[in-house]
C-alpha cells in the first residue's frame, strides 16, 4: 500500500493511502494495532459528505475530516471498535475531501482543533 508523510500540528505521521475503492472499503478493518506515528488517509476527488462506519474495527481511533484546503473540519475522538452490524455511521456536517484515521487520543494529545491546517502532498 502507498504511504506518504503527513504533518498534523508539526507531528510527522506516516500514513497509508486509501485512494481506491477496495482500499477505502477495507480501511483499518481487522487490524489488531496501529503503530505509533502511523495512520490512514482516505482520499476522495472533491469535497463531499464522507460517512465512516466502524464495522470490523478492533482498535479505537480518532477520525479527522479534512477539506480540500487541508483544513480540519470535524473530529470524532476516541471512537471505539464495533463488532455488530449495527455500528453507528459518523460524518462531518461540513463537506470534506479527506478523512484521516489515527490512534485514539492523538488529536487530544496534539490539542487538535477545527480549522487547523494539515500538511501533505499526494504524488
TrEMBL record:
Pfam families: DUF192. This is DUF192 domain-containing protein. Transmembrane segments: none annotated. Signal peptide: none annotated. The lineage of its organism: Bacteria, Candidatus Colwelliibacteriota. InterPro entries: DUF192, Saro_0823-like_sf. It comes from the Bacteria. PANTHER family: UPF0127 PROTEIN MJ1496.
Amino acid at each position: 500500500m502507498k504511504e506518504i508523510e503527513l504533518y498534523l500540528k508539526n507531528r510527522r505521521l506516516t500514513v497509508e493511502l486509501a485512494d481506491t475503492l477496495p482500499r477505502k472499503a477495507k480501511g483499518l478493518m481487522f487490524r489488531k494495532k496501529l503503530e505509533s506515528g502511523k495512520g490512514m488517509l482516505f482520499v476522495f476527488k472533491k469535497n463531499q459528505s464522507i460517512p465512516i462506519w466502524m464495522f470490523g474495527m478492533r482498535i479505537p481511533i480518532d477520525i479527522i475530516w479534512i477539506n480540500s484546503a487541508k483544513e480540519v473540519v470535524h473530529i470524532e475522538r476516541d471512537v471505539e471498535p464495533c463488532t455488530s452490524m449495527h455500528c453507528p455511521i459518523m460524518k462531518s456536517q461540513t463537506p470534506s475531501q479527506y478523512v484521516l484515521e489515527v490512534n485514539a487520543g492523538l488529536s487530544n494529545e496534539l490539542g487538535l482543533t477545527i480549522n487547523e491546517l494539515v500538511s501533505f502532498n499526494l504524488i
